[in-house]
């Protein structure tokens, strides 16, 4: 018999006996078991019955495989009428000569698998020569506990934590269950305490031992423990350390018996810290004294409240509460004097809650402020807050003042008619008159009732002020009821003292910023009085000042007032323009301002752009003003929206369930200006063809007056994709206006193609609407080729086309596609950069000549920096450039002389003129200096030669000029040598041969040091004639030294590493002459 009970709400399964039956042809298998919980010791009974043809055959093998069951317990056994072999996880029966009619096996103390799920028991039977495999499926279920923890712990403090659990057992006989070694393990996610103790055991024996280790608490009883079926068990953990964070933690409890886990469950706990309720709003139906009222209080908080929390109200003055309602559900409460308590006011966890609490009571008989103090316990962050409830006196219903005449300085009767909203008994009425009447305060006799009339004899004031104030007070039983202030017109003098009035607002939209331009002519002070719905607190102007919250005074007759906040509601507003003289109003003009609802555009977000698909619409509405109680949001759905079932709405800003989307949402969350209200609308179906969907949301107040309108449009549907599009160039030549083909593979007929890309294209039949949008008029389908042109940019040879194509047919979108393609252009083969394909600007090889690349520059041109430049020297047919232009060859019979092409006569005249100076050396040096040479030298070899020559000269000088007279001659010669060295240094620097200039400077320094050493050898007593004689003797020696120097210079000129190229005929003739 199969007996299987359903799951309880606490997820505890009661089981008695479970049966699995499986039949093959002439074979019936029945398996029964007692427990289906994980890790439970089970009793499994297996019965196999053979019928029909199987009775006549010999059964050779019966193998039972319990793959995931545990047979390792010492008490495990299998009872059978036949001998069995136990080979875990198998139990096998084998025989060669036996016919079996009935087979039974009883598995004792076999342990269920540790994991829940469907478990398979395989039965293999070999009957005769036939093998039969049968599979039995058992469902093993997890075992859970119903448990909870209760405590009022504050963060960082120690307190008590009461833990309770319910664990249901089922036995054939309903008797207490005995446990040999029962243990409870509570695992917390945070540290608890090392100094805990456990008391107040319920459903458990009091001999329990309680210990803590790290984040776990162990409760165990080494003695025998009896637990009753379906009983409640609890105990209190003392000195429990609550965590420091304000959040709900999840802990785990495990129950073991003799080391075997029986069950496991989870429970929540948390600490709290006092926190103030973020928002408390008071709404009262009647706050007048002695009236019966309903006080409604809205509590909004971002904190969460745990289930079954307690709420407490403390009143500053005793007020008898008749009824208390929370979220439209009447709650039972206990009022103890000024304290009102509600136990377990909520059934579930409230996150970011909003509570509506209503009190019904009789107001006191007098004006009084009563303080309501709230306290909500048993939450993660304990909440508190205060609210002041004011009982107001009964109000006046009417106050009417009239006179017989309104002429200045005339006597007249003044009539005052007063009507109270509620009658008074044995009361007194006081009236304070305007100061212009020169009357003292008047007190009535003892009166009763609600309507009163009084008459006074007065004299009208002589001033021209138009308004004054009457004050009235009513008392009953020494309790002040209300003070009435009334502005009453005493004198009506028709004066329109404002001329040429021009007034305009930059915006007449609700919940908007506007500026007021006003221009008028008046000799009096002008004040602008706005309706109280218009906010002028943050105005800016040059010629005005703000008097109070509604009045602006102009210092000049013309001004612009900025930062005026328009009304919240789209309705008429009154603007009064008044003139004053000495605080007396002279005239007044009433101006009506009619405001329209402000309209805002919002962009919707959708989950899919696929046509005819179920969709979700999300609208983010930035609020232009605060949302007040009883505000509503009207929804105008698109007429072409497909709605097959009720739409579901949800505010994503708040944790709440979905609600039906009607044409009006009444329960709006209370939010502040500039906050974003995120509304999600589910279940609508996208249209079957592309079309414009227009949503409209209208924010209205409780009376239906419009505040703001939010419009949303959507048309960006997911159309059929264009599968293929590419750009093909005619060639890759780089030219300014490049031609190409736009190739498109289309599936449907088109008549217009819209191109949106980063590069503008031009074509025949194209219409450019915006900078990067081009409409192409072309009909057809399939593969279309559109010739187009585009402009290139100098020196840019790679172009990345990023474009979107949209095809239309008779105004409807057919297909869309997004594409990217890179194309490359190039110059001619030997050109690196070009302005166009045939106009090169930089060559890869060769030289640039007339925008083309050549291997060599033509005649009368020279090469420089990869380009050919024409020779600027006249009559020169070959030239080069070395810091300046150098002519290498002249035309015809012209000779190259001083870097110029000249005739033979010019050279002869010039040479004869130079020979008249009798200084051949100076003329030669001048010719050499003026002539341009191409010098190529081997720098290391030159240094070595010069160094050896200088060393040789120094040694000769030291050996030959040891006497005083020779030293004097050497000094004179040294001066000439120094001059030549300085000249060479300057010449090398001018020619850019800085290395030779540095070498010459070094030798000059060394030479000067040697000369100073030689001059020190002079003796002061040597006679001048002696020096003269000595000088004469040594004359020939000096001459020979000069010849040596000239020889050295000649060697330098003919040194192989120094080449002097002279191509002119003049240079050849000079060499012959020398």
TrEMBL record:
InterPro entries tied to this protein: Furin_repeat (IPR006212), Giardia_VSA (IPR052798), Growth_fac_rcpt_cys_sf (IPR009030)
SMART domains: FU
Top-level taxon of the source organism: Eukaryota
Presence of the UniProt keyword Mitochondrion in the record: no
Protein name: TNFR-Cys domain-containing protein
Transmembrane segments: 934-956, 968-990, 996-1016
Signal sequence, start to end: 1-17
């Amino acid at each position: 018999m199969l007996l299987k009970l359903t799951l309880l709400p606490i997820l505890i399964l009661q089981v008695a006996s479970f049966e699995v039956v499986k039949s093959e042809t002439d074979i019936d298998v029945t398996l029964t078991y007692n427990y289906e919980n994980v890790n439970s010791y089970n009793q499994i009974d297996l019965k196999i019955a053979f019928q029909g043809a199987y009775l006549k055959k010999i059964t050779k093998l019966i193998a039972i495989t319990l793959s995931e069951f545990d047979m390792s317990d010492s008490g495990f056994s299998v009872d059978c009428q036949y001998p069995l072999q136990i080979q875990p996880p198998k139990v096998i029966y084998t025989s060669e000569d036996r016919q079996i009619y009935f087979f039974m096996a009883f598995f004792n103390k076999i342990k269920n698998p540790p994991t829940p799920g469907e478990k398979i028991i395989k039965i293999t039977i070999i009957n005769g020569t036939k093998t039969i495999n049968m599979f039995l499926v058992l469902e093993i279920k997890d075992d859970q506990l119903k448990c909870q923890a209760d405590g009022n712990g504050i963060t960082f403090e120690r307190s008590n934590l009461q833990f309770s659990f319910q664990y249901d057992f089922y036995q054939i006989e309903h008797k207490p269950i005995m446990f040999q070694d029962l243990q409870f393990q509570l695992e917390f996610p945070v540290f608890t305490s090392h100094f805990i103790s456990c008391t107040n055991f319920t459903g458990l024996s009091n001999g329990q031992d309680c210990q803590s280790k790290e984040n776990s608490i162990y409760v165990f009883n080494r003695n025998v423990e009896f637990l009753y079926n379906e009983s409640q068990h609890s105990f209190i953990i003392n000195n429990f350390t609550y965590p420091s964070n304000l959040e709900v933690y999840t802990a785990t409890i495990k129950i073991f018996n003799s080391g075997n886990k029986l069950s496991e469950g989870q429970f929540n706990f948390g600490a709290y810290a006092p926190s103030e309720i973020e928002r408390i709003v008071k709404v009262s139906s009647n706050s007048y004294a002695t009236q019966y009222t309903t006080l409604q209080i809205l509590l909004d908080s971002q904190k969460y409240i745990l289930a079954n929390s307690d709420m407490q109200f403390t009143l500053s003055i005793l007020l008898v509460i008749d009824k208390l309602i929370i979220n439209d559900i009447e709650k039972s409460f206990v009022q103890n004097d000024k304290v009102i308590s509600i136990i377990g006011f909520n059934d579930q966890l409230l996150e970011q809650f909003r509570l509506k609490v209503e009190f019904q009571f009789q107001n006191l008989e007098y004006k009084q402020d009563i303080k309501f103090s709230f306290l909500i316990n048993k939450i993660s962050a304990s909440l508190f807050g205060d609210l002041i409830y004011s009982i107001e006196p009964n109000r006046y219903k009417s106050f009417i003042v009239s006179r017989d005449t309104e002429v200045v300085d005339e006597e007249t009767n003044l009539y005052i008619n007063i009507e109270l909203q509620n009658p008074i008994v044995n009361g007194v009425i006081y009236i304070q008159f305007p100061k212009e009447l020169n009357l003292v305060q008047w007190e009535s006799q003892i009166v009763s009732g609600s309507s009163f009339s009084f008459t006074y004899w007065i004299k009208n004031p002589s001033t021209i002020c138009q308004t004054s104030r009457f004050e009235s007070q009513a008392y009953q039983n020494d309790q002040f009821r209300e003070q009435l202030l009334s502005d009453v017109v005493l004198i009506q003098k028709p004066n329109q003292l404002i001329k040429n009035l021009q007034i305009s607002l930059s915006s007449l939209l609700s919940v908007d910023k506007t500026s007021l331009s006003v221009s008028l002519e008046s000799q009096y002070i002008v004040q602008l009085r706005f309706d109280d719905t218009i906010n002028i607190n943050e105005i800016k102007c040059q010629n005005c000042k703000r008097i109070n919250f509604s009045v602006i005074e102009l210092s000049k007759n013309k001004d612009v007032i900025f930062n005026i906040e328009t009304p919240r509601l789209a309705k008429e507003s009154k603007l009064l323009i008044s003139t004053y003289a000495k605080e007396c109003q002279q005239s007044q003009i009433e101006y009506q301002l009619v405001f329209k609802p402000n309209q805002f555009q919002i962009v919707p977000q959708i989950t899919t752009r696929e046509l005819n698909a179920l969709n979700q619409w999300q609208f983010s509405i930035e609020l232009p003003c605060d949302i007040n109680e009883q505000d509503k949001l009207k929804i105008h759905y698109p007429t072409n929206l497909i709605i097959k079932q009720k739409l579901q709405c949800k505010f994503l800003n708040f944790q709440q369930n979905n609600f039906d989307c009607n044409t009006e949402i009444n329960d709006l969350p209370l939010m502040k200006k500039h906050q974003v209200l995120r509304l999600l609308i589910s279940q609508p179906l996208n249209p079957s063809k592309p079309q414009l969907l227009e949503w409209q949301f209208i924010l209205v107040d409780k009376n239906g007056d419009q505040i703001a309108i939010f419009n949303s449009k959507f048309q960006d549907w997911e159309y059929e994709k264009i599968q293929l599009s590419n750009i093909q160039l005619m060639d890759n030549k780089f030219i300014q206006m490049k031609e190409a083909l736009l190739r498109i593979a289309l599936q449907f007929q088109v008549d217009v193609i819209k191109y949106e890309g980063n590069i503008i294209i031009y074509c025949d039949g194209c219409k450019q609407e915006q900078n990067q949008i081009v409409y192409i008029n072309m009909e057809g389908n399939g593969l279309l080729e559109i010739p187009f042109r585009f402009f290139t940019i100098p020196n840019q040879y790679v172009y990345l086309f990023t474009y979107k194509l949209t095809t239309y047919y008779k105004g409807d979108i057919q297909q869309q596609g997004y594409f990217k393609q890179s194309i490359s252009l190039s110059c001619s083969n030997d050109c690196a950069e070009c302005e166009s394909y045939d106009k090169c600007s930089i060559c890869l090889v060769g030289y640039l000549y007339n925008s083309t690349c050549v291997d060599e520059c033509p005649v009368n041109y020279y090469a420089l920096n990869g380009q050919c430049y024409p020779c600027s020297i006249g009559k020169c047919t070959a030239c080069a450039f070395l810091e300046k232009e150098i002519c290498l060859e002249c035309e015809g019979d012209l000779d190259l002389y001083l870097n110029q092409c000249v005739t033979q006569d010019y050279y002869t005249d010039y040479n004869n003129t130079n020979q008249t100076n009798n200084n051949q050396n100076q003329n030669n040096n001048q010719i050499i200096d003026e002539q341009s040479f191409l010098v190529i030298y081997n720098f290391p070899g030159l240094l070595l030669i010069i160094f050896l020559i200088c060393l040789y000269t120094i040694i000769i000088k030291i050996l030959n000029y040891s006497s005083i007279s020779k030293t004097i001659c050497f000094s004179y010669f040294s001066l000439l040598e120094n001059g030549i060295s300085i000249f060479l240094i300057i010449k090398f620097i001018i020619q850019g041969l800085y290395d030779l200039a540095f070498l010459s400077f070094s030798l000059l320094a060394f030479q000067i040091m040697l000369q100073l050493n030689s001059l020190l050898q002079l003796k002061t007593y040597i006679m001048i004639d002696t020096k003269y004689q000595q000088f004469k003797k040594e004359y020939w020696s000096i001459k020979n030294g000069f010849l040596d120097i000239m020889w050295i210079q000649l060697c330098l000129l003919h040194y192989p590493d120094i080449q002097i190229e002279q191509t002119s005929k003049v240079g050849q003739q000079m060499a012959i002459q020398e």
